[in-house]
Amino acid sequence: MKTFDEILPALEESLRxxxxxxAKIGKLIINRDLNGRIRLVVDEKIENDTDAQKAxxxxxxxxxxxxxxxxxxxxxxxxxxxxxxxxxGIPHFPLQGFPGVIIADRLLAESDWRxxxxxxxxxxxxxxxxxxxGVGRSTALAASAWALAEEGKRVMVLDLDLxxxxxxxxxxxxxxxxxxxxxDWLVEDLIQNDGxxxxxxxxxxxxxxxxxxxxxxxxxxxxxxxxxxxxxxxMPKYKPGNSPEPWQNRLGRLxxxxxxxxxxxxxxxxSRAGIDEVxxxxxxxxxxxxxxxxxxxxxxxxxxxxxxxxxxxRNDAAQNIRGRLRMVGALIPEINQTEYLDGxxxxxxxxxxxxxxxxxxxxxxxxxxxxxxxxxxxxxxxxWPVRWNRGFAAPRNMYAPLQQAAVKEQVDSxxxxxxxxxxxxxxxxx
Length: 430
Prior knowledge:
The protein is an alpha/beta fold. 38% of the residues lie in helices and 16% in strands. It folds into two domains: 4-105, no CATH class; 124-429, Rossmann fold.
């Protein structure tokens, strides 16, 4: 039997082999179900067309010969009045090299790394993301929020690392933590009870005196039955007579309500590390202006980002996301900083060039393509540095370091490259 990773190459072989017959079929949807089995979906108009029927039979035999039990012996071809209805609410992508052929993926999770929402029209939204945990992402977000607020900005901070919450603890003392959080809202919204808690799920940090930092935590002061709530937070919402509303759409609705109530200048979102449904929603569904990709120079980092970038490339999503990405060099060591940053920049440039940037034909101008020199400081791959510092290394909260007399100089020294970059994004957006 073919493995899951062998499905698409086998399909491509069959479709190339049957290119003449494929042209007689018209639009072809290849449905890949939860178990990785394949069905073909075509327009019911060809069911009584003798030539088209011979063509679909030939394609079916070719695929069956290659995929064996992943292409069951009966019910392989579904005839639909409107094949496009099969794609509604389902992640799907065109099969490269085969016009009119669409792969529809039936996934248990509702994450969709392929569909990239355009940037939101309101406050600038910036997502802090890392492929691996333990890179100082949340601490960097907290320091950035403080620095922006010290400049007079109204900063909204969302803790969407729901499976490993704690960002709010860096900026809020327990005494002023709100009663509820994002997970509570997602659960109550399922039964239209969200209005009961909405006014009590934000708190203002007392760390800033010039602007404001509004924190929306993952959970409230008393987490309650957090694990039980978390198991329900990602459910779609059902209303009589309406299609199910996916959880990421519900999350987007919450963010709009928060923004309309509080009118921030910038929204900083702490995403779950790794490639799961929460990360997918933060990066692709919430209208982020910029996604900050935190990285340390390690094989695990580059392997993880390569998996994600290859997915975007294969599914024709690279062009929609690459210009909104920015590498952040995390935990830059105290010694050999220049050499370390050079290596980080080179590895970042290599993976962007291979997966996301456009190859430039020798007879064309670079102006027509998305491509950058390795040392171009404006390029998505060029890392904004965050330096390792003992005082900011996994603090219990940010009060101790941020209340020191020389705190501004320390923040600038450690996070200055990141903060300056974020200020540039806000300036462009405003």
